[in-house]
Amino acid sequence: MEPRNQKTAASNGxxxxxxxxxxxVRFHFTFVLFVIFLAVIGLEGPSGAQAAIYVLALFGxxxxxxFGHSFVSRRYGIRTIEIxxxxxxxxxxxxxxxxxxxxxxxxxxxxxxxxxxxxxxIGLAAGLFGSLDWDQVFRRRGGNLLGQVALGNIVLALFxxxxxxxxxxxxxxxxxxxxKYGESQATELAAKAGRILAIGMGLYGLISANYMLIxxxxxxxxGAAQESAALMGRQLTQGVPVSAAMITDFRTxxxxxxxxxxxxxxxxxxxxxxxVMSGSNVxxxxxxxxxxxxxxxxxPDSYVAGVMERDFLRLDPRMDLSEAMLLxxxxxxxxxxxxxxxxxxxxxxxxxxxxxxxxxxxxTNVERA
Length: 369
What we know:
Blueprint (H helix, E strand, L loop, with lengths): L5 H6 L2 E7 L2 E6 H15 L4 H28 L4 E7 L2 E6 L5 H30 L4 H6 L5 H16 L7 H14 L1 H26 L2 H27 L15 E2 L4 H10 L4 E6 L2 E7 H10 L6 H4 L6 E2 L5 H11 L2 E6 L2 E7 H20 L1
Parallel strand pairs: 2-3, 5-6, 8-9
Antiparallel strand pairs: 1-2, 3-4, 6-7, 9-10
Helix pairs in contact: 2-3, 3-4, 3-6, 4-6, 4-7, 7-8, 8-9, 10-11
């Protein structure tokens, strides 16, 4: 388990996380609900154990798919911040956006893993049973679990190769379009293709009463919309220093103050996160969530120094805001902006959102003028 990411997971819809090969893997709450849903459906039938193994094997394949992206990105010197598992697949969050040629191979690595898994399972099934009855495999009849998991991996590979965001095929499409049109226009085109695909899938799901397809279409549309939003965020923050968006009018707590003192400051101001000081040195960060938990568990007379977070995100005021956004998304809701050991300001998710909104409105007004 990775305790440091518990707050991050909760704030971003995750339930828990763990480390696999040194990479944090976070399970989105919708992923867990989906697994429970499939397990209940499978256990209602006569082969409940086989259905459970099938579901676990497929999600294991999804995880290996994401590690395929992670391993290839590492070859290009790009670290994987985390892997988030959703009901229709996973997302490997990278520390920086790869170049078009890098993105092409990183995107193809995931489906390639599924094809390799399918090939190994088909070869194993052929060695054990002589041949595969594909009619039974497609109808999910009989006990050929190896063939069914192999088919599932083939479907995963083909689905992810659809040329639309957020699938890998959309990233392949963007990498190829970026060579001619640039990243911004290429991302918009790939995201638009994702939204069109999602709408088409959703309409077909409604007509055919295929609610699973509607469910998938919703996540595809959401992923495409998030990619467009992320692009807008990068465009509005590239070349802008962290100091331009940080809060400079803030309050601090002393390490000798109590939780009651912190609660009074929380009520008296609009601030939600407080740097904890020992003299002129920053020694920790007390967030609203930590304060409330400490109030309930430790009591109002406990000291701030005993519950504060000592491992907090530090940002240089000269850092590019587009890079800081990625770090803040992983760390939680607040980062301390420090020049050496001197505290300069706070960067929070809330004021960053306000900064982006104002920048976007300003750009819109300039374009209209």
